Amino acid sequence: MSPREPTQPDPSDEEEREQEESQARVEAGGIPLAAERRLRELGEGAGAFTSDLSVGSFALCHELGLTPLAQVMGSSIYQVGGYAGVLPGAYAGGYIYELDALSGAWNEARDRAFRRMAIEAGELGADAVVGVTMRKGERDFTEGAIECVVVGTAIRADGRARGSAEAGRASGRAVLTELSVPDYAKLRRAGIETLGVVAWTSIFFVQSWTSASLGRALGLMPNQELAEYTRGVYEARESAMSRVTAQAASIEASGVVGMRVEHIVRPGGQNGLIMGFDVIGTAIRQAEAKEPGAPETIVNLN
């Protein structure tokens, strides 16, 4: 009897196993296998880098010894549950409460997107990600779906060669920032440490029972402030800002720079409005900040 030849693995089986593992990784908050392999190869110097840097920003990286590695991204498409909130009871003018499910969905989708961006930067052995931009919105391919996508450029900030990705991975998690390359460089020159992105979204529902609402329905509304709605804006703002401040404090930040605030107001039905604040910025620590040098006097003898 002739010896049996070893059975070769079926390519379709290998592909199916890879698809299953990629799916499991995404469900656990990670990235697919194909993305991991490509980024590791780029981190080791295989292939040309990609970035969303302008020509000026790329030239500045070259001057400062910052090495662009690749464009990195994170994405999450998330299903929103019921708009459940904790009703604290009616106040004099109506109801005001946070839509916990909606706030939670936006915060979880954004956190998953940033977590995946950090994983991609880690596979490259990056020290930081600069120029992070975020796009988010509702999607109509399924009811209640929202999406958050973040994109930026991973860099090595200490001039290490691209082939030393393993050392970069061992050095820890890359710092994610919304800072442009010029702003990132200014902080580095001043000895100010960037700690990462801090962000929060708070969505509130406000229902008004005031005479102003009744008067509007009857066409008799006088000029006056809709105080309940104004209060709702403040409630949403204070909720978002307090969470961002707590995040910064948890990583011992001195403050937050480059903060962007997005404010939404839309009809909520039943004589109410949905109000939201979305806050994002870069946490910094300035305890080791250097004193700016004194200006140099130049006398023109001509």
Please describe what this structure looks like:
The chain has 302 residues and is α+β, with helices and mostly antiparallel strands. It has one domain (29-285): Translation Initiation Factor IF3 (2-Layer Sandwich). Helices cover 36% and strands 29% of the residues. The chain has eight helices and eight strands, in the order αααββαββαβαβααββ. The strands form two sheets. Strands 1-4-3-5 form a four-stranded mixed beta sheet. A four-stranded antiparallel beta sheet has the order 2-6-8-7, sandwiched between helices. Strand 7 and strand 8 (272-285) form a beta hairpin. The longest helix is centred in the middle third of the chain and has 25 residues, at 100-124. The N and C termini lie far apart (102 Å). 33% of the residues are buried. The model is unreliable at 84-93 and 161-171 (pLDDT under 50).
Q: Short description, anyone?
A:
By secondary structure, this protein is α+β, with helices and mostly antiparallel strands.
Architecture blueprint of SSEs:
Blueprint: H1 11-27, H2 33-43, H3 55-64, E1 67-79, E2 94-98, H4 100-124, E3 128-139, E4 145-156, H5 165-170, E5 175-176, H6 181-189, E6 193-208, H7 211-218, H8 227-250, E7 255-269, E8 272-285
Parallel strand pairs: 3-5
Antiparallel strand pairs: 1-4, 2-6, 3-4, 6-8, 7-8
Helix pairs in contact: 2-4
